Fold this sequence. Notes:
The complex is a heterodimer of chains A (324) and B (189). Chain A has 324 residues and is an alpha+beta fold. Helices cover 34% and strands 19% of the residues of chain A. Chain A is built from 9 helices and 12 strands. In chain A, the strands form 2 sheets. In chain A, strands 1, 5, 6, 7, 8, 9, 10, 11 and 12 form a 9-stranded mixed sheet that branches. In chain A, strands 2-4-3 form a 3-stranded antiparallel sheet, with no helix packed on it. In chain A, a hairpin with a 5-residue loop joins β9 (224-225) and β10. Chain A starts with 12 loop residues before the first helix and ends in a 16-residue tail after the last helix. Chain B is elongated. Chain B has 3 domains: 3-63, SH3 type barrels; 67-126, CATH 2.40.50.140; 130-187, CATH 2.40.50.140. Chain B has 1 helix and 16 strands. Chains A and B meet through α6 of A and β3 and β5 of B.
Amino acid sequence: MALSADWRPGADIGTLRLRAELLRRIRRFFEREGVLEVETPALSRAATTDPHIHSMTATTASGGPRFLHTSPELAMKRLLAAGVGDIFQVCRVFRGEESGARHNPEFSMLEYYRTGMDHHDLMRDLANLIAAVTAGWLDLGEPDFVSYARAFSEFAGCDPFSDDATTMAAAISARGIDVPDSILDERDALIDLAMAALVSPQMGHGRIGFVYDFPLQQAALATIRPGDPPVAERFEAFIGGMELANGFNELRDAAEQRRRFDADLVRREHLRLPRVAVDERFLAALEAGMPACAGVALGLDRLLMLVAGADTLDKVLAFGWDRV
Amino acid sequence: MATYSTNEFRSGLKILMDGDPCTIVENEFVKPGKGQAFSRVKIRNLKTGRVVDKTFKSGETVEAADVLETEMQYLYEDGEFWHFMVADTFEQYAADAKAVGDSAKWLKEQDMCQITLWNNAPILVAPPNFVVLEVTETDPGVRGDTAQGGVKPATLSTGAVVRVPLFLEIGDVIKVDTRSGEYVSRVKD
Lengths: 324, 189
C-alpha cells in the first residue's frame, strides 16, 4: 500500500481530547502538591547501560553522536542533587526494538521524584495521583500490594530468590507457557518470562496492583535492603494486567552506582551489545549528594489506553510507529 | 537460507518449525519494563492444521518456509493423485491424499481451490467456501414441507453427506458451505 493512502491518525479525535485533559489533570495534581515541572534534554552523550533497553542514536553536525534518552532519570537526579526539590517531567522517550500492541519505540513518560519518601510512600502517592487524574473515567478500588516473592509463588509457582533455572523452567512450563530452549539455563530470562506471561496478567484487576521488593539482579537504580534474602527496594504498578509504572527507593551511593553500571557493561559485552559511555556527570552528582528520595516512571500512553478503553497503543497515539 | 528475526514476525509469516511449514497466526511482543523481551506467538502447522503456542527470545531467528498460497482449478482424480491447474499458466500440480485430506469430498471438477505449495509441492488443498453439488442419494422428498425444520441425510455427487431439508429429491442441486459442511440453499437450474 502506498504510504500516502494511510495518512490518518490512529487515535480518534475524542481520544486526542482525552490525552489533553489527562495532561491538564496531571499538571493540576502536581501544582497542588507543590511539585515543580522541569524539562531535561532528550539527547545525551551517555546511553543507558541497561542491556535490555536499546538507546537510539542521533547524528550531529559536529561533536559526534548523541543518544536519545530512554528515560529522563539521570538528568532529573542531577537536578535533585542541585537542590531543586520535588520535580516531575512529561516527555517523549525512545527505546529501540520495542514494538507491539503495548509498546511503541517512542512514547510519553511521566517521571517524578519525591524527596523524603521511600518506595512504600511513593506507591501510595502514585495511587493517589492515578486516582486523581482518572477520576470519573476509571473506577478503581483500593490498591493491592504484593511482594515480588509472593506474586511469583502465587502465579508462577516458583521462588525467584532461590529456585534454580531447571526448577523455574519446569514451573513455567507446567503453567502452559512455552519456554524457549535458548533460556533453559538463564535464570534471569526465565524470571522475566514468568513475570511477563504469568504474573503480570494477574495483577491489578479493578484496582492498581503493586509488586514490590525485587530480586537483587533487577535492582537497577534502587537501594538494596539487607535481610534474608536482601531485596531491591523497587516496585512496579499494574492495572488490568498491564504494567504501567516502575519506581525505586533511589540509590544515592555513587560507588555502588558505578559498580552497577560496570556490571551492566560486562553483561552488554557478553550479549555482544555496543559498548556505551557511562554518564559521568550523573555519577558526579551522586558523589556531591542527592537527597533521600523515591522516584517513578509511568507510561502515559498505556494509562490513556485504559482511560479510552483501547486495546492497542496505536489507538491512543496520533501516529504510532507504523504511521510515522 | 532465508531467516526471519523476531522483529519481523507478523501474522501470515511462513516459517519452518521442527521441519514443518507453519504460519504465524498471532504475535505478541512482551517485555517486563527492564527485562528480557520475548515474542509469544501462535503458530499453525500447515500440514496438520494444529495451532501451538511458542515463545522466542527477542532477536532470535527462525528459518523461512518457502510457502505460497495459489488459486488453482481442480481437474480430475486418477485414483492416487488429485490434479490441479493454475489458470493463467496452465501449470499443473498433483496433490496426494495427505494434502487433500477431508477436502476430497467437496472437490468438483473445474472448481477453483486454494492450494498451499511448500517447496513447490501441494501440502494443503482448500475447497471453495461454497460448492454447488447434485444430490445423488436421499429418502424421497416430503412435498409441501418447505417451511418446517425437519432434516434428513443426503449424499452428494462428490460423496459428501450433508443434512438437507425434507423436501429435497434426488437430482436436486444444492449449495453447501464447505467450512461448516452445512446446506445453504437449493439451486434452481
